[in-house]
Write a structure and sequence with these properties.
7% helix; mainly beta; 334 residues; globular; four-stranded antiparallel sheet
């Protein structure tokens, strides 16, 4: 069971008015990405959308506006890229035991691909996601106690916290009940100005915290209903993933990504259900009320790799299994 969970652990289409639930969505562009690179992550910049991918021991950052690329040397696959205004950070995901003590560090580069050093940011637990705080170049980390959960000592609860660099005690502690056990462990998290938004991928529930770690709100979709995998959906999954799923009991993951606009709108991208061919994005206003839902049609054989929201555009990184191509599609959501 643990091997299956660790295997799926992670630490941003074609669409027209006939495909969309709301007339407020319009396709803006399609960008085919260079081949022989495993593109894996979208990163939103100021009015820019970047895509990151790996080829052997190099990572590439591509600007989707003009297809210009920057190469970063000596980067292993599985690293998560974080961009600031002046630097690029490649952070590890997982535990010290998984990565080894020499790999549990954040590699620092300038935006031209020049290596600038490293930062060691160690936490007790299984590190799922790093993100930058308001303080320049200071990191926060979301970590869980995976060993304790797998040992059965938490009565099925997933325990963890958000740690701020330089502090040994977590800013936020959380406990999420897990029954039945999840098929994968991902915590979508977003931070903007004085708020942190935290969700567990397998529940439609988003907790809102102040920058001081106090819970100040909650967001959910009252019209969304959790439904277990059907037999047909299970048959569409990869063989290893099927071993962790029970028909009629196990539910698919729900929240793929959280994005927060400068105006405080919260965009929740849901995971597509197996074979459904649809991607849903729920939009909530700054008070946490559902403002609308957008729907994008996925073509057969398309897989959603990542999504991200910029100020005026929603982008999707897709992989076509049939054509063995990666491409980015952009949309406006009004």
């Amino acid at each position: 069971m643990k091997k299956a969970l660790m295997y799926f652990l992670s630490v941003f289409y074609l669409c027209n008015s006939a495909f969309c639930q709301s007339s407020g969505i319009q396709s803006t562009r399609t960008i085919e990405l260079p081949k022989n690179i495993a593109w894996s992550q979208l990163i939103a910049g100021k009015n820019k959308c970047f895509v990151m991918g790996f080829e052997k021991t190099k990572a590439y950052l591509l600007d989707t506006r003009n297809n210009s690329r920057v190469a970063f040397s000596d980067i292993k696959r599985g690293k998560f890229l974080i961009l600031s205004r002046e630097k690029a950070y490649f952070a590890p995901l997982g535990s010290v035991a998984d990565n080894g003590p020499d790999e549990n560090k954040i590699s620092v580069y300038d935006l031209n691909g020049k290596y600038k050093g490293e930062k060691r940011v160690l936490y007790n637990g299984y590190n799922l996601r790093y993100f930058l705080t308001e303080k320049p170049d200071a990191f926060a980390c979301l970590a869980i106690d995976l060993d304790k959960y797998m040992s059965g000592k938490t009565n099925g609860n997933m325990e963890g916290g958000i740690f701020i660099e330089g502090n040994s005690h977590p800013l936020i502690r959380f406990t999420y009940p897990q029954a039945p056990p999840p098929t994968q462990i991902v915590f979508p998290v977003a931070a903007i100005r004085n708020k942190i938004y935290l969700a567990f991928e397998n529940k439609y529930n988003i907790d809102v915290y102040s920058k001081d770690g106090k819970k100040i709100g909650n967001i959910s979709n009252p019209g969304f209903k959790m439904e277990p995998y059907s037999k047909n959906e299970i048959e569409l999954l990869q063989p290893m993933k099927r071993t962790t799923i029970k028909e009629g009991i196990t539910c698919p993951p729900v929240i793929k990504c959280l994005d927060i606009s400068k105006k405080g709108m919260v965009y929740v991208t849901r995971h597509p259900r197996p074979g459904a061919g649809k991607l849903f994005i729920d939009a909530f206003n700054e008070l946490g009320s559902l403002a609308g839902t957008f729907q994008i049609k996925l073509e057969k054989g398309e897989t959603v790799v990542d999504v991200c929201m910029m100020e005026k555009e929603y982008c999707i990184l897709l992989h076509s299994e049939k054509a063995n191509l990666y491409y980015v599609k952009g949309y406006t959501l009004n």
